[in-house]
Amino acid sequence: MAARFGDRVRFDFDTRRQFDSFVQHPLRCEHQFEIPPGNYRFKLIFRTGKDRFGAIETPLAVDPVDAAQISMSAIALSHDVQPISQDAADEAVEEGRKPLIFRGNQVMIAGSDVLPRTGNAEAYFEIYEPLAAGNEPVQLTMQLRLLDAQSNQQKWDSGDINLSTLAKSGNGVIPVALKLPVATFPPGRYRAELTVRDSGGGETARSVQFQTE
After folding, report:
1. Could you list the mean pLDDT of each consecutive 10-residue stretch along the chain, which spans 213 residues?
2. Pick the CATH number of 65-212 from 3.90.1150.10, 2.30.42.10, 2.60.40.2550, 3.40.50.300
3. pTM for the whole thing?
4. What are the backbone angles phi and psi of residue 167, rounded to the nearest 5°?
5. 74 with 207: CB under 8 angstroms?
């Protein structure tokens, strides 16, 4: 057992209509916890007050970070992006939570890898750039490719995108959120491949699979 957490949530409804409306939508559960790098098995057990329960289990990999080389976090998928004030962001940090924020908007992590072809379909990730921790300007470029997960056929290529304006001197953590152009894709399973390069010759890459419907 490397880490564990628990939570209890109570819901009260004044009318049957309120309850019926509540059960029409998924219940979002989010919890942040710290764990050392390594490969784990994540298991979550949940139950109601009437002892009806369920469980989910999935592999969990936490990669180590080399502070001397450019690297990238895992890619978080989202279909819900909302404005957030600085006060609300500061309050979340004080409570031990770190919201995913990019340019004044909070990116809410999706509960599955299914993204709608209408509305928001976004990816959030962080670049860990040791060159940005100093005072020298850093040149960063990013390339996003979308491929069919089955055939590996390329569906879209962004080309090189300049991210240099996101690198702030003295801060080696660079958040990035970008829209995935899936509106014209037919329903299916795809893979997003991200590659980031810096002016020091460093390169890092990540990928994530998702489904459109």
Report:
1. 89 92 85 91 87 90 90 94 93 89 94 87 95 85 96 95 92 93 92 95 96 90
2. 2.60.40.2550
3. 0.87
4. -80, 115
5. no
